[in-house]
Design a protein that fits this description.
The chain is an all-alpha fold and 81 residues long. The chain has one domain. 62% of the residues lie in helices and 0% in strands. The chain contains four helices and no strands. It has helices at 14-27, 32-37, 41-56, 63-76. The radius of gyration is 14 Å and the shape is globular.
Length: 81
C-alpha cells in the first residue's frame, strides 16, 4: 500500500497554516483531502479556489442543490463526503 506523509496542524506554516486555519473555520477540522494536497500548497490553493467558485459563485443552482449534487455524486462514487 502506498503511503504519503500528511502535514499535521502543528507543522503547517505561512500560507499553508492560513489555509489550514480557513479549513478549520469552515468545517471545524482539516479534512484528509486538504491534508493530502497540503504537500503542494499551490495545488491546494487552486483546488480551494475552484471549490469556492463552484459552491459559492454565481449559478442557477441554489447552494442546497449544489451540496445535494455533491453528496449524490460522492455516494455514487463510494466516496465519503
Amino acid at each position: 500500500m502506498a503511503y504519503i506523509r500528511l502535514v499535521q496542524d502543528d507543522e503547517a506554516t505561512g500560507p499553508l497554516k492560513q489555509m489550514f486555519d480557513a479549513a478549520l473555520g469552515r468545517a471545524g477540522r482539516v479534512f484528509g483531502i486538504v491534508r493530502l494536497m497540503s504537500r503542494n500548497p499551490p495545488v491546494l490553493q487552486a483546488s480551494m479556489e475552484m471549490y469556492k467558485s463552484t459552491m459559492f459563485g454565481k449559478s442557477p443552482l441554489s447552494r442546497f442543490r449544489r451540496e445535494l449534487l455533491a453528496t449524490v455524486v460522492s455516494r455514487a462514487n463510494d466516496c465519503f463526503y
